[in-house]
Write a structure and sequence with these properties.
The chain is mainly alpha-helical and 336 residues long. The protein has helices at 4-34, 53-62, 69-78, 98-104, 123-132, 138-144, 148-153, 178-192, 195-204, 208-221, 228-240, 248-255, 291-298, 322-335, and strands at 43-47, 88-92, 112-116, 169-173, 307-310, 316-319. A two-stranded antiparallel ribbon has the order 1-2. A two-stranded antiparallel sheet has the order 3-4.
Amino acid sequence: MVPPTDKRRRHARPVLILCLLAVLTAVVLALQLNRPTGLTPSRTVEIRTGMTAHAIGRLLQSEDVIRSARLFTVLVRLQDLAHQLKAGTYELDGTYSTNQIIHTLLRAPVRTRRVTIPEGLNRHAVAGLLQRQGLADSSRFVQLTADPEFIHQLGLDRPDLEGFLFPETYFLDEHPTEESIIRRMVAQFHQVFDDALHARLEHTGLDLIEAVILASIVEGEAAVPEERGIIASVFLRRLKLNWRLQSCATVEYALGERRTHLTNVDLQVDSPYNTYRHHGLPPGPIGNPGKAALMAVLYPANTDYLYFVARGDGTHIFSRTHQEHQRARHAVRAGG
């Protein structure tokens, strides 16, 4: 009879061998994933304030700077470096291992200029802002945002880039080119409008460009953040009913300027962007919406409102019927 101790030893050996093989496999895999990707030339990569190690890893993997976001996260945590990674703009390529990239992010980033693009600006206004900051030639910027070949290079099929110049705080090189700024802004749009938001489009009945157009209108109408979802719900209901949107923001875009008050003559301006005269969405976005406006369109408030009127303080009165809307309009006029 075999002693019990020997039996346990015999059973333990295969388990030990399997454990050793698993560890060896993990080590070999980690070494493979730690290798440089070979990407050249370098990429400009922006690490934003507040990004987690995993988010940074995903960004670096998407830019082909590292092979595995998961390995990046594990190495950062093993070395307790998560809080030492510095926000900023880096010139990175794939000639370094993942661990070397991590230590590159511990050093000061390349010298940069900070610029904030507010939500809702159209491409001409964005160009003017960048020129005032000394970061771009506005004419060149506007020209490029309507250049068919350049737009095609960015993977878009649009007459211009209105709606896709994502509003954000950017850290740019001291002397950026107009092309590099536009690429950054469009890339940021695609990073924000990720797979989960693309999947959500199916629930709205809108395609990507329709969602961006409507979000730009919501951005133009909403002054109070809490009202974005309600305003989006109004426009979505009117679209389903094939009603004209009657958005003042689209009329202002057609006129080429913001106005505190639109006259009856203004509302008759001859433009495909005038949603007082034309049904459905206008042919393109009227500005560049931020994430909150995009989310409002994709996840609108659950309301049965069909009308709204501005109070004059940034908020609106919402109504379900035309009769209610007329009373609200009279109340606003009486209060003014």
